[in-house]
């Protein structure tokens, strides 16, 4: 029962991880969840994330050969104008030309989703912020990648870039899509209660959350989270801290009717934590958080869902 509450807390509105949450995690019941399969999927997802990071590193180093090594022999790329380039050798030549023309070109990649279509096929969606010259503003473009697993290694078989976005909105304007968070929220279960208050910062450039977690065993944990706009990566980011010393950092990606939050953090005893959450807004007074791929240290934990509702105002005296 206590484990259930831990998992519920890991999915709380505040997106924070607390020391006693992590320390209370118990081994998962292998009869309830196919843990070996989930672990393999989790390993694949981590390898795909590493592949995206390796691409970013190779691009920023101007290393066309290292980039080409991440593609299959017959891979294709499609740029935002629809031009198709086929074959690893041609892809390497194209990047080599790019780095020759723009030796200071840099890229920042933000993943929005990773999906395993099968044991050897995966799809990645995200945004890339490319700056060809430090004196010029970068352009942010959505992209999609199809991966194939060959000889135990994930390689890009198809990459498609879409037209760049253009915006000069302020941080406050960029966060308006999350303005519905402002207010008082609560979620309850037989194991405890989480209360969260969200408001705009004094300069209106951040959303500030404070939360209190109360377990039925009498434990109380407090923490806070700041949600802001990253103008470099052009994405929403957040930083959460609780009184135990645990903290998390996350990127937020909008979907049509939801947000995907990819969070990573550290527990006070030094264990790494990562989780993907989808926040689905039902109406102005309720939403649901679904947590997937939760890893604490080297242990994968069961998925979890929690329903959060807006707390009604206190009655007038």
Automatic annotation (TrEMBL):
<dbReference type="InterPro" id="IPR027843">
    <property type="entry name" value="DUF4440"/>
</dbReference>
<dbReference type="Pfam" id="PF14534">
    <property type="entry name" value="DUF4440"/>
</dbReference>
<feature type="domain" description="DUF4440">
    <location>
        <begin position="49"/>
        <end position="156"/>
    </location>
</feature>
<keyword id="KW-0732">Signal</keyword>
<protein>
    <recommendedName>
        <fullName>DUF4440 domain-containing protein</fullName>
    </recommendedName>
</protein>
<dbReference type="InterPro" id="IPR032710">
    <property type="entry name" value="NTF2-like_dom_sf"/>
</dbReference>
<dbReference type="InterPro" id="IPR011944">
    <property type="entry name" value="Steroid_delta5-4_isomerase"/>
</dbReference>
<feature type="signal peptide">
    <location>
        <begin position="1"/>
        <end position="24"/>
    </location>
</feature>
